[in-house]
Amino acid sequence: MQEIIGALTLGSIYLLFALGMSIVWGSIGILNFAHGAIFMFSAFICHQILKSYEAPFVVVALLGMLVGSAMSVLMQVLVFEQILKRSTSERSADVRILIGGIGAGIIPLAIAEHITKNQAFGLERSSFDIHVFEVADLRITNIQIITLACAGVLAVAIGTWLNRSRQGLALRSIGVDAEVASMMGINRARLATVTMAFAGALAGLAGVLLTYQLGALTPDSGDILLVKAFACVILGGLGSTLGVVTGCFMLAAAETFVLTQTSGMWVEAIAFGLIFVVLLVRPVGLFGRQEVRRV
Amino acid sequence: MNTFYDANIVLIQATFVGILLALSVQVPLRMGVFSFAGAGSYGIGAYAAANLVIRQDFPALPTLVLSGVVAALVGLALGLVIYRLNGLYLAMATVAFDLTVGVIAVNGGEWTGGANGLFGVLTDLTLPIIVVVVLACVVGVAITEHGRTGRRVDAVREDPELAASMGINVRRYRLLAFVASGFLGGVAGAMNVLARTTIGPADVGFGLVILALTMIIVGGALSWKGAVIGALLFTWLPEALTLVGEWQELVYGFIVLLAGIFLPRGLHGLYVDGRRGVAARRRRSRLARVERQMAGEIDSDAEAEPVAVDERVGS
Amino acid sequence: MNSWLNRGTRNSAARTGVVALAVSALLMTAACGGGDSAGDSEGALPAEITIPLSTPLTGASGFAGVAAEKGYDLALKEVNDSDFLGGTKLKLDKLDTKSTPQQAASDLSSAIANKSVPAVLGSIASGEAVAQSPLAEKQGMPIVYIQAGSPGVLVGDYTYRLTAPQGSYYPIIEKYLKDKRATKIGVIYGSWVPTIKDLGENAVPAAAEAVGATITTTVATQQTTQDFSAPISKVLKTNPDVVALLQIGAANATAMKQLREAGFDGPVIGNSSAGAGNLKPAGAAGAGMAWPVDFDHQTTDPASTKFVEDFQKEYGEVPLTYAAEGYDALWFVARAIKAADSTDREAVKDAMQELVKKPFTGAMGTDRTFEGNDFRVPGVVIEWDGTKENFVYAAE
Q1: What domains can you pick out in chain B, each with its CATH number?
Q2: Which among A3, A9, A268 has CB closest to C224?
Q3: Are residues C147 and C33 in the same domain?
Q4: CATH code for the domain in which residue C231 is found
Q5: What is the pLDDT of residues A67-91, one digit of tens each?
Q6: Residue C370 is inside which H or E element, if any?
């Protein structure tokens, strides 16, 4: 039972990180390799500010979202829009977006590494204490509950919004066919900026929550999560919120299972073996639609 | 010259390894296969070479070739399993392959030396051997960029359906991409082990994928020349950036970022565009001269060269 | 990455022997172009000698390199101020490897090409050191490391290390286990780090056996493990009374915090990578972790105490282990140059061979010894109380 709580929390962290990445990727077609850097840097800015001011949890979380959102919009305007403007074909744009993200991601990483001298940073000075609740034999902390709740609420809200609302429809239509969407009067650039801002806010929130939960982040924490989130999105199938949710919890469950039932040596091999098998059975992920655009 | 060589031998060797690593990701990309398996092949080649030398006392040249073949066979097996996948799904499957190679490196017992890695891989490797092997690989790749093969490869990349309808066996080309990538990556890994005499799990990580991708996108994705330019640039750039001091990592990031934005077809593309620009200007002036000739203003017939210039330079 | 800590000694003797043989065989053939060591006339030291220091100052292992740098600098100042080399000044040429083995190897080959360099201070990172050692051995360049505990680092007469491998003094933890009445020990260890792998699979089980305790279960974690709740719940299921939590850097704080949140409030044993303030982010939850180290500023050894005082005078802070080791490494080089009375690499190497046969006094203590070219210390045990490290006991 305790393991299940652990797996759910881990899955929720993957989900908070992967959701933003997957929305942007599935709709406006940008695989943002700087997402991990945005995640880390949001928590890092909070850490820097908490050095001089004390702040309650909610303020820290909002601050993280604000920073993530601002960075994400900057990325969109200064990097991705510029690349798209200068691209002749979709294929060349896709690969260059990867490189743009890689290059842009190095910059916040370099700044954080420089300031922290590569040591871990936490959010010690916020006025938020971690409590452990004990129910029968089970133990759960307040930050775990917040993480689970945030992931659950956001996943349901985003899923519903994408499927039901007009803007959601517009966003999905861009993902299916950008040209037709623009002919139907959808302002791609504006929608893209809003989407990026939202994704950045999610990354910032994930950064703050994970820092509280783990106690500390290192500047390279984001890069480790990036590969895992990439795997989760692919596992579930690009462009499907249900897919991302499934992918994240599947990976978390697989990892928890291996870590608790074996010596733990092969945990990564099994996680990636799982991806391999899923892709062989379903080449577009569990809930992915048949790819319309070629990459 | 000799002092320069002695002082920079490591970077010189690394440049050649970098060329092969970049090619191992570029070749499949050019065939429209979004595979990063080259990084995993690098690991396989590296460990294969280390074992061949430590256990069997193999000399350098056979080690390089055999390690490449081993990695190529693994590449073929991988290709047979996943060639049907597309786009980033294929990319993810190959990244999973790369990371699995890393896990095996950590847990492979005495075959990989576990977390310690293997060391004492001493052979008769010399710079001429490196140059010859890399040259052979580059020539092999260059051949596929020209003539009939080149056009077929372009067709498979740009429009697989059309290529298939023209009677090209697309599946065979895609599998070939996996084999070639495996061989190039394997030789790159083997060469690195022989040059540095040591290999560990940290040397075969996800970072290789990023490095190779950066090299070919900034260098140029559609020609071996792009891979060479990228390998040269990103092997020597960190050395050059030492001058910048403590913010070198930041400057490195900016350079990659700016190249991504402003060089749509990489440095090689810039070069090709530049050359084409010059050619076009020359052609215009030549045309003008011809016109004037026709108008009878100049009565010389010295300019007998054909006017047509191939528009399709490079891409 | 992060493999800069002491790597284990398992198999090292046998393997080092093989490597050394192979290297010397290669030397026979390769060094014929020889005479590339400094051609200065024997016995005359130049006015200034440059010693390259090739170690990570930025990147993953940068924090340890920066800490060590202060020790090197202090020793350099002392050597020059005391006129130790009789009118000859030493100069440090600091080369940042940026935590990449390639840069480390490249910087070393530049140093080798510079004929006036008599010896090099090598990288603290194992992954970089194993890339430097073969070059140094092949080209006959004496190189002195600290940290870098991998078996591939010391491969022959030209490679030296002024840090004792953690596994060699880890048995000192036995007294702590006895005091805590340990009977059942659960182990969580990062198997991807060589040193820690050695501790988790060899040193901790050996210590447990020595005090009559059993290992209840062992879980390996990987480089990408950020959340430790799964391995922790596996270990706690076996009801251990002591947990061995062996992680690198920041992961120590996370694992410690999650271990306490999971309800374990007993004693925890760790490794030296939990030091240098790495447990601070865990807050109060970090209290109660103890680990052996090769050096602690609260030590009572007179030579160490003098170093600590001088260091505090210079920098206004207490020295970390890295600084103490760096200090000794530079003094080791200076003493070798003085004994050789030459900048000839062969002569310096021969002097180093003599030095390791005698007791060595420095920041790490009085009359410390070498085993082969490798340093040995008895070690001390320290404990984290949530805000600072406390000295628990030293080896008798």
Answers
A1: 2-244 (1.10.3470.10), 264-315 (no CATH)
A2: A268
A3: yes
A4: 3.40.50.2300
A5: 999 999 999 999 998 988 887 777 7
A6: strand C365-371
Distance of CA B102 to the CA centre of its chain: 21
Q: Is A273 among the domain residues?
A: no
The dihedral over CA atoms of B45, B51, B54, B55, expressed in degrees to the nearest 10, equals: -140
Separation between Cα atoms, residue B11 and residue A57, nearest integer Å: 49
Same domain, C306 and C247: no
- What is the domain range of residue A117? 2-226
Residues C46 and C150 in one domain: yes
CB A31 within 8 A of CB A105: no
C interface residues, A as partner, C-beta within 8 Å: 58-63, 66, 191, 218-227, 229-231, 233-234, 249-250, 253-254, 257-258, 261-263, 276-278, 280-283, 285
Domain boundary among C293, C324, C359: C293
**Residue C178 sits in the same domain as residue C145:** no
Has the ipTM of the complex gone over 0.90?
Answer: no
Confidence (pTM): 0.83
Cβ neighbours of residue A249 closer than 8 Å, sequence gap 6 or more: A7, A8, A11, A14, A15
Q: Using CB atoms, which residue from B92, B99, B249 is nearest to A268?
A: B99
CA-nearest residue to B242 within chain C is C96
Report the number of distinct structural domains present in chain A: 1
Q: Which of B4, B10, B252 to mutate to test the interface with C (most CBs of C within 10 A)?
A: B10
Residue C46 lies in a domain: yes
Per-residue pLDDT of chain C (396 residues; tens, 9 = 90+): 333 333 333 333 344 444 444 444 444 444 343 334 444 444 578 999 999 999 988 777 788 888 899 999 999 999 999 999 988 999 999 998 888 888 888 889 889 988 899 999 999 988 889 889 988 988 899 999 999 888 889 988 999 999 998 888 999 999 999 998 889 999 999 888 888 888 999 999 999 999 988 999 999 988 888 889 888 988 998 999 999 999 987 889 889 989 998 889 899 999 988 887 788 888 888 889 999 998 888 888 889 999 999 999 999 998 988 999 999 999 999 999 999 999 999 999 999 999 999 999 999 988 899 999 999 998 889 999 888 888 888 876
CA torsion angle for C272, C274, C275, C277 (degrees, to 10)?
A: 170
Which residues on chain B are in Cβ contact (under 8 Å) with C59? Answer: 249
Structural domain ending residue among the three candidates C259, C293, C327: C293
- What's at B231, amino acid-wise? A
B200 touching chain C per CB within 8 A = yes
Question: Is residue C52 helix, strand or coil?
Answer: strand
Whether the Cβ atoms of residue A188 and residue A178 lie closer than 8 Å to each other: yes
Q: How many domains does chain C have?
A: 2
Q: Which pair of structure tokens corresponds to residue C283?
A: 């807050």
Min Cα–Cα distance to chain B from A30, Å: 12
Task: Give the helix, strand, coil percentages of chain C, each rounded to 5.
Answer: 45, 20, 35
Same domain for C313 and C257? no
Contact between A103 and A96 under an 8 Å Cβ cutoff? The reply is no
Q: Which chains touch A (3 or more CB pairs under 8 A)?
A: B, C
**Cα A102 from chain centroid (whole Å):** 16
Using CB atoms, which residue from A3, A215, A268 is nearest to C222? A268
Domain extent, residue C23, equals 12-164+302-376
**CB-side exposure of C391: number of CA atoms within 13 Å?**
12
Q: Put residue B107 in one of left, alpha, beta given phi > 0 → left and psi -120 to 50 → alpha.
A: alpha
User: Does the CB of A109 have a partner CB in chain B at under 8 Å?
Assistant: yes
Same domain, yes or no, for C25 and C105? yes
The 10s digit of each residue's pLDDT in B113-158 is 888 888 878 888 889 999 999 999 999 999 988 888 888 888 888 8
Q: Is residue A154 part of a domain?
A: yes
